[in-house]
Amino acid sequence: MNYSISLREKEILTLIAHEHTAKEIANMLYLSPHTVISHRKNLLTKMNAKNTAGLVRRAFEMGVLSIHRMEAIAV
Questions:
Q1: Helices 33-46 and 7-17 sit at what angle, rounded to 10 degrees?
Q2: CB 16 within 8 A of CB 64
Q3: CB within 8 Å of 5: residues ≥ 6 apart
Q4: In which region does residue 72 sit, left (phi positive, over 0), alpha (psi from -120 to 50) or beta (all else)?
Q5: Other beta carbons less than 10 A from residue 25's beta carbon
Q6: Running DSSP on this structure, what letter comes out for residue 20?
Q7: DSSP assignment letter at 49
Q8: pLDDT tens digits for 11-35?
Q9: How confident is the model over 46-69, as a mean pLDDT?
Q10: Sign of CA pseudo-dihedral 24, 28, 33, 34
Q11: Domains identified in the chain and CATH numbers
């Protein structure tokens, strides 16, 4: 299982965990929604998740995201 993710993917994953939509994330990061969706698909593959809920769960299980880091980020 390959879960080495880029800084941009981690940034997008964090925003997904904060319940932002692809369009919202795209606006925040000055990307197209298609680019955000592509990053999300890559994350799903890398983390072997079936859907976004599974992606976020796996990120917490693998230590890619943590509650303490999530609370420190003001989005």
A1: 100
A2: no
A3: 13, 43, 46, 47, 64
A4: alpha
A5: 23
A6: -
A7: -
A8: 999 999 999 999 999 999 999 999 9
A9: 90
A10: negative
A11: 7-72 (1.10.10.10)
Copy the structure tokens of residue 63. Answer: 């230590």
AA letter at 37: I
Closest by alpha carbon to 47, among 60, 32, 34?
A: 60
The length of the chain is 75
Q: Is the pLDDT of residue 5 over 80?
A: yes
Does residue 62 or residue 26 have the better pLDDT?
26
Which residue bears the tokens 């890619």? 64
Q: How many helices (H) and strands (E) does the chain have?
A: 5, 0
In the structure encoding, which two tokens stand for residue 1, read together?
């299982």
Element (H, E) at 39: helix 33-46
